[in-house]
Amino acid sequence: MSRIVQKYGGSSVADAESIKRVARKIARAKQRGDAVTVVISAMGDTTDELMDLAYQVSPQPQTRELDMLLTTGERQSAALLAMALNDLGVKARSYTGSQAGVITTERHGDARIVTITPGRIEKSLAQGNVTIVAGFQGVSQDTKDVTTLGRGASDTTAIALAAVLGAKYCEIYTDVDGVFTADPRIVPTAKRIPEITYEEMMEMAAAGTKVLHLRAVEYARREGIAVHVRSSFSDNPGTWVKGHADIAKGNQMEEAMITGIASDASEAKITVVGVPDEVGRAARTFDVMAAAEINIDMIVQNVSAVSTGRTDISFTLPMSDGQRAVQALNAVKDEIGFEELLYDDQIGKVSVIGIGMRTHPGVTAAFFDALAANDINIDMISTSEIRISVIVEAPKLATAVQAAHTTFGLDTNGEAVVYAGTGR
Amino acid sequence: MSRIVQKYGGSSVADAESIKRVARKIARAKQRGDAVTVVISAMGDTTDELMDLAYQVSPQPQTRELDMLLTTGERQSAALLAMALNDLGVKARSYTGSQAGVITTERHGDARIVTITPGRIEKSLAQGNVTIVAGFQGVSQDTKDVTTLGRGASDTTAIALAAVLGAKYCEIYTDVDGVFTADPRIVPTAKRIPEITYEEMMEMAAAGTKVLHLRAVEYARREGIAVHVRSSFSDNPGTWVKGHADIAKGNQMEEAMITGIASDASEAKITVVGVPDEVGRAARTFDVMAAAEINIDMIVQNVSAVSTGRTDISFTLPMSDGQRAVQALNAVKDEIGFEELLYDDQIGKVSVIGIGMRTHPGVTAAFFDALAANDINIDMISTSEIRISVIVEAPKLATAVQAAHTTFGLDTNGEAVVYAGTGR
């Protein structure tokens, strides 16, 4: 009997019927003889609805109380799933993050898992229960207050549990059939990727592939946990995320130059115009962003114009943080001494990702040629060892992704792409 | 600075606006310099909605999981109230029953408070916080599972906390202006009772007065906690529940024969016809009810007819348990050997309550005369030292209550009755 951890996202447990469907899926795994631990998200839009309620009560809800409020969502779905399983004759018990021993830092709304003390989980598994843990939450090491783990947190909870329980693998059930060579909504000929390395998955996630959250992949890589991403709406094979050595020869990505094309329409660009080209001025700009807890993605600093002694700094950030960023920068306009701010959220990011790049020269050239051939201007560029990302005009995003997908030979030969689910 | 405990029911925190209103009420108490601990119920119909959800998922939800599900309601309102208070500049922190140290028995759905270990509450009060505790819930002493305390439980939580914290008194905020000489919806001339003894309040509660739950009054009496029942929708004086010695002379109830008339339309009557008049047959009937965890109220056993050697047993029980009771009894029909079961839920209970009865003879006669004068037949009778209850036909209930209210001189002299609130 081997241990496995399964995680089901909110869209997989959106209502009573979905919860029963998920229960049947879990019951089948249990019948295969596995010892199953399940991490569950809140039902459908519950978290958003609770957030709305909080803002009806308070213009700026305290983070401690917001965590107390939001964590009830996963507790509800966990309890309901346990009821549904028991009806199927499968013994099940639900646990809050705190009961499950998920110990975190104290930072409400974005806590990190410090350790997991799985005493009660181990006991529950020993009793033969399917053990259901409310995702996204834990308890603060020092204050013993309820905390939430921030975005992608239920995936991270599942992988952390898989590690501490010595699980054979971690299944992440979502509303898509796995990781594709491109977003099938943009590229209908995109192919499911049967196996992908942690490194490539991290680049895909960082570049906008929403299927699995970056932090969760990092955690899986560090702990060496094999992750199986698949749909809770089908029994299709999905995508395995593994260490390079564990990837089946036939699927090893050296054979292909490029693993996939990621796209992200959720970023905006800020250009700080006319920054005096003196030591520390640019740094100060990013201090301000850091203080506002805004994550910067790409950065370009133009060569300073000798005549003016001033330079422009452009960077991208999540569109949702755009207005806060502009306010924060304007607040220090005189201190930094820039001339003006330009804000543009009509941009899209296209990323070409593949370990194959290391050994194949000319990928950049081929990518840029494909964009040029489609009249697409490149606004910003950033690269890693196995990724090239460019910013283009938002209206050109889809064309750019399709062009790259074709150029690197990723289009299916008529193989139908299964894309179940409710969208994320 | 004196400590007080306040409890707000679900109808007092039905939506965001109500929560803010309650927050302002608490802020005023805090400004008077009191150290305030608040026990809060779930918002409006939240508990019913969660219950519906559970039954959508499972025909018979496990009680452990049901408790995990239902307790989220109070956690949500507690967190929201804390947010609202902090917005008013009043430091506040919310705690789950478990965090507040409410240790209970293991019986899910109807656990009893074993003890309260108020370490975190004391710490929070010492920090000057309004300390908000999710009502209706605790944690099981042995299993450490989340439990719920059953009906009237938030009142009990509040009174238990008042006792352990050494509070000056416990305020129960509800949607009515206090305890009245009769249900003002039935008797418009009913008067608010300014002060009432624990014993009378217990009889009123047992006899159907919903304002305060019997178990909570028992607890207050045992701990000697003064309870102030009042409306969260007004600043009206409400009703004090106290020990007899603490009742102001002017309000002492010896001066009046009768304190109030209680009515209850929620009971049904079962008559077991033709029970062999042998030792243990009747007892067996009530064993069956006990096994089904159904509370019996009034019992009448007719004199056995010598000719047949059989007798009839009638008893009243909550209407909501009626069908279960009938099924349970029919299952043992042959064993008990009765002839048939009669079920009647068209009944009402009228109770006359007052410590004055002890010293005033003739109360029973006056009561029955009033009923006779209104053509109301008495079906069953039960009495205690300070209460007389009768069962009448449901359609006659209101008339019976009004008649008793007038007979015992409880009608107001034109004084308007304030009856705010949303109904319970």
UniProtKB/TrEMBL annotation, chains A, B:
Catalytic function, reaction form: L-aspartate + ATP = 4-phospho-L-aspartate + ADP
Q: Which residues bind ATP?
A: 7-10, 174-175, 185, 210-211
Name of a matching Pfam family: AA_kinase
What are the entry keywords? Amino-acid biosynthesis, ATP-binding, Diaminopimelate biosynthesis, Kinase, Lysine biosynthesis, Nucleotide-binding, Transferase
CDD domains for this protein: AAK_AKii-LysC-BS (cd04261), ACT_AK-LysC-DapG-like_2 (cd04923), ACT_AKii-LysC-BS-like_1 (cd04913)
Whether Amino-acid biosynthesis counts among this entry's keywords is yes
Q: Name one GO molecular function term.
A: ATP binding
Where substrate binds, per the record, is at: 47, 74
Q: Does Kinase count among this protein's keywords?
A: yes
Q: What class of enzyme is it?
A: transferase
Which GO cellular component does the record give, naming just one?
Answer: cytosol
Record-annotated ACT domain positions? 270-355
Query: Which InterPro entries does its entry note?
Result: AceGlu_kinase-like_sf, ACT-like_dom_sf, ACT_Aspartokinase, ACT_dom, AKii-LysC-BS, Asp/Glu/Uridylate_kinase, Asp_kin_monofn, Asp_kinase
Q: Can you cite a GO biological process for this protein?
A: diaminopimelate biosynthetic process
Q: Which NCBIfam families match?
A: asp_kinases, PRK06635.1-1, PRK06635.1-2, PRK06635.1-4
What family is it from?
A: Belongs to the aspartokinase family.
Indicate what this protein is called per its UniProt record.
Aspartokinase
